[in-house]
Structure formats: C-alpha cells, structure tokens
Design goal:
Number of domains: 2
Oligomer: single chain
Shape: globular
Order of helices and strands: HHEEH
Number of strands: 2
Structural class: alpha+beta
Helix content: 25-40%
Strand order of the largest sheet: 1-2
Distance between the termini: 32 Å
Largest sheet: 2 strands, antiparallel
Number of helices: 3
Amino acid sequence: LYRVEDASELASIGLDDALMGHGACIIEWPERDPMLMTMPHLAITLSVHSDHTRLVTMQSRGPRAAALMAEINAHWRNGADA
C-alpha cells in the first residue's frame, strides 16, 4: 500500500476483492489502512540480522492465522530451513 495516499483508493485497486478471495493476500505497508490490522491475519516481518542472515518474525491474529504460523514453525524446526 506504499503508493496509496487515502483509504478511499483501496476500493479502486481491488483490495476488498483480494481480501475476500480464497488464497493468500500479501500486503506490504498494511499500516496504511488501519482497518487491515484489526482483521484476522498473519503478519510476517523480515529484518536484517547480519550481512548474510535475515530474521523472520511472525505474529498471528485469529485461529486460522495461528494454525498457519504453527505449521510454518514446525516446518522450519524440522530442518527445512537448511
């Protein structure tokens, strides 16, 4: 939502349709629309940890997001991060 200057623009870019779909919707800069942060979601933040590594932080809001986060964590803990 980097280029969105006003919440009224969100309808014209089809955000509502994307959010009501059955797949994943990845939104960069979601804080541009405060309503998004109140909806069930899985927030994934990537940050620089060192020159060669990145830190992934996840926060879930809602039971579906919590289940997805648990599945991702289990996958990484089982050696899939190598």
